Structure formats: structure tokens, C-alpha cells
């Protein structure tokens, strides 16, 4: 069984589509980069930087904005001997329809994201 997650499954996409999310929301990205991208002489972090550069026009078209990005350094709660993630990224989207339009638009570089990652989580969050 594969315990890594680098892209949305059909089941997750359909479940997301059914959620009654209205207005702005945030996507919390927990990212673990590959040490080296297959058949390329770059790291996963370098490949992810390429993905981020390619996704900027899609963010601009949907008015998405990066709220936070940083590198985890130390775990106060959780495994003591390791930090599981290489980067935390939080992106805010105006609404669910804009997000869906962005990720399903022709040319959206989803494969660039997947090729950079060894594992990830994409967690929907809303203000309450």
C-alpha cells in the first residue's frame, strides 16, 4: 500500500465538490520534497520552485494569495527525532468555484507539483 500522497484522488475531488464551502478558504500545504527528481538533475525543492513560478499566473487569475510559507524547524508536539515536512504553505482562495476553475484549467501544472514531492497533505481550512 502506498502511504505517500502527491495528488488529488477522484474520490477526494468528488468529496470536496460536495462540501458546502461558501466564501474564502485556506489550503494548508504540508510538503515533503524528493531528494532528487527522477531523470533530472534537480532536487524536489528546486522542482517545486519551478512549479510555484509556473502557477503564479493561475493564482493571479483567481486572486489567490499566499498567506504564509516557511520551513518547519522543531516539533513541540509529535515525533521528537524528526521534522516530517520540508515546507508549510498556506494559500487563500476567494471561493470554491475559483479554486476548482484554477486546478481544472488547461495548462495548470499539477504534474510539476507531483514530480517535486515525496509526500504532501493539502488541508482545507475555513475561518469559524
Describe this structure in words.
By secondary structure, the chain is α+β, with helices and mostly antiparallel strands. It has a single domain (10-125), classed as Alpha-Beta Plaits (2-Layer Sandwich), CATH 3.30.70. Helices cover 34% and strands 24% of the residues. It has a 4-stranded antiparallel sheet. Helix 2 packs antiparallel against helix 4. The longest helix is centred in the middle third of the chain and has 19 residues, at 44-62. It is globular. The model has no long low-confidence stretch (mean pLDDT 93).
Counting helices, strands and paired strands, the structural category is: alpha+beta
**CATH-level-2 architecture:** 2-Layer Sandwich
Per the CATH scheme, the topology name is: Alpha-Beta Plaits
Distance N terminus to C terminus?
36 Å
Strand content: 15-25%
| Domain count | 1
Number of helices: 4
* Biggest β-sheet description: 4 strands, antiparallel
Task: Compile the SSE list and pairings.
Elements: H1 10-18, E1 25-33, H2 44-62, E2 65-70, E3 87-93, H3 96-104, H4 110-116, E4 117-125
Antiparallel strand pairs: 1-3, 1-4, 2-3
Helix pairs in contact: 2-3, 2-4
Short synopsis of the structure:
It contains four helices and four strands, in the order αβαββααβ.
Provide keyphrases for this structure:
128 residues; alpha+beta; Alpha-Beta Plaits; 4-stranded antiparallel beta sheet; 4 helices; 4 strands
